[in-house]
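Lecture notes, unit on binding sites. The following record was shown on slide 14. It pairs a sequence with zinc ion.
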Amino acid sequence: MAPRLFNTYSRLLEEFAPIDPAGKAVKLYTCGPTVYSFAHIGNFRAYVFEDLLQRHLEARGYHVHRVMNLTDVDDKTIRNSRKEGKALEEFTAPFKQAFFEDLRVLRIKEANAYPAATDYVARMVEMIGVLMERNFAYQADDGSIYYRIKEFPEYGKLAHLDLDQLRPGARVKSDEYEKENVGDFALWKAWDEEDGDVGWASPWGRGRPGWHIECSAMAGALLGDEIDIHCGGEDNIFPHHEAEIAQSEAVTGKKFVRYWMHCKHLMVNGQKMSKSLGNFYTLRDVLAKGYTGREVRYALLRVNYGLPLNFTFEGMADARASLKRIDAWVARLKDHATTASGEGDMPALAAHDRFGQALDNDLNISGALGELFKTITECNLAFDKGELSPVQARGVLAWWERVNATLAIETDADTNAVPADVQALVDQRAAARAEKNWKDSDELRDAVAALGWTIQDSKDGQKVTKS
Ligand code: AMP
Ligand code: ZN
């Protein structure tokens, strides 16, 4: 059964069906950071949720093509680069770099592309030209170009706003959406002194793109006119994503996005974590307190994306304790499995897909983790009673590997897992020994040693450890 996802547009849980007629390829666009400082862990809640979505879709056999943009020109990047007396590019470059490092630390899968807005200005100008031609846009007295929302009757459908209530004639030039009023929004901002040397030529004079057209242009350029899933944090719904729909659909005449998905905010004491409120932690702040990337990942991951998540250091300690429990269980399984030989059935306690089934239900991660911990408890019980054979332990590990491909939370410190190629030789050796073929047995031991692993023979079979 296909996963069911909550679509912000319809406000319904919908069965996922990609545009691809073969039903396999998935085009995913995720709004990325504005690179004027380090991303905070609230931003990373959105990216970790998107990573979980991608990984679960992949676990279900879809091929996900993900694009995440970098907003490297907007009001904030310009203002701050000028404050520091740096060229825009010079100012944003270290924050782009830091962002990629943070993604790695949080084990977020690499996107297929990270387009930067400044590389797509020509396409933005082209789109605005089409919008002007079709009467969806107009030039105001200050020289800026605005989108005429009353020309797009669908405007307001994503955010479930009533167009009649939008103030007629109100215009919004600011990119800082927290402060925006409802109304026509800027597509192209005429140059003024505050922009310094940032600006591009256009048929409407020197200026720069508005934030919303950036995403429409990059999404269209890299994923085409129609996208399967478009994500962001809930603050992106309006006006950013509403504006993206209005721009893209007015240009292409096609449905821009099939499924809109938004995560609720990471909160601090009941308020959204945000730069402007000053109540934020960057990933680096949390790492400096002695937490690891996977602990932060787990802390951000474990609450369903549709619920707000309060950030606290008690929560971090809980995440650490949960991971310790998982680590101890995995280490015990691995230790036991080193003596396994031959094939065996998956033990009943791990012969299920309840973890994946929970995620099929709109990424119900708390349900999925509940299934994981239930399996851990049952497994430890079987261990204690001596009812789990080494071969069965290996089976449970195979189950865990599938689960961890979605969670990506296994400890790095554990390099004791026997790789598949080594295990294959160990299994052959077990077969050779069963046939008392000592020559092959010795050769296989040498082959395993050459790969950096040592075999000890005991009455329980072979024990394999790192040399
Ligand atoms: P920004 O750099 O502000 O454009 O934000 C980048 C991404 O992070 C967007 O998808 C935002 O919706 C998301 N975001 C910002 N603050 C939070 C928060 N406190 N919790 C969850 N997501 C957030
Ligand atoms: Zn965007």
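Take-home: The two ends are 45 Å apart (CA to CA).
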